[in-house]
Design a protein that fits this description.
about 300 residues; alpha/beta; seven-stranded mixed beta sheet; two-stranded parallel ribbon; 13 helices; 9 strands
Length: about 300
């Protein structure tokens, strides 16, 4: 599973939507020459299925990461539970829900092997201890499930991925001796790592940051990096043996005319021999975790 923060289906306008100014050859090839948008939100072919999912979850206001991600990774409509959208971090009332029902924990309780592929530098843990940072839904879910976050050693040995895909940002934390990965190599690493586990998650946060920046060149680079990463995955992807799911929690990067999140639908992109079955089962963000748990419990 690839989770990208802040990716919605927007208008086909290259002046505001970087999906239509970037070179996204791998995504376009998967979707028969199209790119995901409000106009082309439903595509099904021999390679992939794309469909839209609503991030508003039947609740007024702009979708936020705390409730959106909790919904994705528990199967419970967190926005409706709170009566509002909340973020970027999980609300205190959602932490018990994450303790009980997060996807990592559900799979591990069923004897499945699980990997959260992102690596975190020492400074992240120090900031958490000093309460300068808080756990996100995914990092909290990982620790709750008894999976210590991966770090420098795993990144160095090829058993983890940098959150920015290439690892360039690690130099800012004093790890300038680590090699910078090409996005394609990172994608190959992700797929190789996924073959060792029943479920593997990679989270990409730069899409949301780029949306808030409203900088077209930054947003274009962030999407092209993600597309090259996808190309690395596809180079080795075995559809008969794997299911790849890509989704997001809310829109943002697809509309640089605003600095805020959007109410645009988010994409559900599925690859693999079970893509059509999974697509029929997932008609809401609340259905992602239940469907994955069901698939891996067969």
């Amino acid at each position: 599973m690839i989770f990208a923060d802040g990716v919605g289906l927007g208008r086909e306008d290259p002046t505001t939507n970087p999906f239509f100014s970037a070179n996204l050859q791998h995504l376009s090839s998967l979707l028969g020459g199209h790119l995901p948008s409000r106009k082309n939100s439903r595509i099904a072919n021999s390679q992939a299925v794309l469909k839209p999912l609503s991030p508003t979850l039947g609740v007024k206001g702009l979708p936020q990461s705390g409730t959106g991600q909790t919904t994705i990774f528990t199967g419970v409509n967190a926005s409706r539970l709170l009566g509002q959208h909340f973020g970027p971090y999980p609300h205190s009332r959602l932490k018990s829900l994450l303790h009980e029902r997060n996807l990592f924990r559900q799979l591990r309780d069923r004897g499945k092997t699980v990997c959260f592929a992102n690596a975190y530098p020492r400074q992240f843990h120090e900031a958490i201890e000093r309460r300068k940072l808080r756990y996100t839904v995914t990092t909290l879910s990982s620790t709750i499930a008894g999976m210590p976050l991966r770090g420098y050693e795993e990144l160095k040995s090829g058993e983890a991925l940098p959150a920015d895909i290439t690892g360039e940002r690690w130099a800012q934390f004093g790890y300038d001796h680590l090699p910078v990965l090409s996005p394609r190599t990172a994608g190959e690493r992700f797929y190789r790592l996924s073959r060792k586990f029943d479920f593997t998650l990679f989270e990409y946060f730069l899409t949301d940051h780029a949306g808030h920046s409203r900088n077209m060149s930054v947003a274009t680079e962030v999407l092209e990096r993600l597309d090259s990463f996808l190309g690395g995955v596809l180079e080795h992807f075995e559809p008969e043996e794997s299911l790849l799911l890509f989704t997001s929690d809310h829109g943002n990067i697809e509309d640089l005319s605003t600095k805020s999140h959007t109410r645009n639908p988010v994409p559900l992109l599925l690859l693999g021999s079970q893509k059509d079955v999974a697509s029929r089962a997932i008609n809401s963000l609340t259905r992602i975790t239940p469907t994955l748990v069901e698939f891996m419990s067969r």
